[in-house]
Write the structure tokens for this entry.
Amino acid sequence: MAEGCPTPGKLEFAIESNEIRGPFNLSETLLSGQTDGAGWFEVDGAFWDAEKIDLQFIKYIVRQIGTTDRPALNVTIVGINALQSKTAIDAKAYLTRILRLNDDLERFYSEFKNDRLAKTFPHHIGLRLMLASNPFESLISSISSQNASIKRWHRLVQLIKERFGQKITFADGSNFYTFPEARALSKATRSRLAVCRPGYRAEYILNVARLVAEGNLDLTALSNMSYEDARSTLLEVCGIGPKVADCFLLYGLGFTRAAPVDVWVHRIAQRLYRKHMTVKQTETFLQDRFGRWAGYAALYLFHYARTCSGRVR
DNA sequence: AGCCAGGCATCAG
DNA sequence: CTGATGCATGGC
């Protein structure tokens, strides 16, 4: 196996505070209920997930060791067998990307310090958007979230992984189920999917899995389109409406000007800005006012509405 | 028990 | 275009 250099099944590295632009709060970010916090597991203060890096699945255990204002992360990666030291370098770049550690949060705070949005800042300093590691998973996950509580939605995604994904056992003995490829999920039938309890979302999930598997919905192509074109393409798909499309565009493809408007964001936007706005008006309002930060605005509004709703005025 | 959940498709006006 | 309704099911 190991040829020459010693290659342990476990490597450790740090992401230093000078490699993170502005404040960061890992647990706020992962537990804020955004579309891509779903997969992470918490084990006494640290969080882990797994994804394919360098053609093999790696488990990464991330622990915040600095403060929110001067954040640093301690990362342990675990492979299935041995690890190359190059994998640690790639894992670091990967984590920097999906945790969006280069987003200039201070700039966001200062740019809107006189906006009513600033009301939400003190409660959630260091809260960052996340970027999905797997766009297809992000799309199915977004569809699965509709008209369901966060708890139920996370459960559905986890059941899809356990039922249709691939089981992996890492060198530390832990088990993980990968999210199925579009092809694998497209072969599921209604009755086989029913064990995951998707409810009426079943036909949406199967429809989208088939479209992607057959190449009729090309997620890579979408990421190369303009936001408007990608969005209108998505809206033609049965099961994808404005909110699901924006969630996927934001979390799955990284269009930060997408501002998903759900019941929470809609309610809080009306209380903070204008009493009578339709959902559609709220969408355009957020996009016009916050531009490339609209996704962040929606995230802060969402999280604020859910955690501080009693104190809103 | 009954209402609501990170909505959407469909149909009526 | 806007507004009302059914949807499948769990969480609280």
User: Anything to note?
Assistant: The first helix of chain A runs from residue 26 to 31.
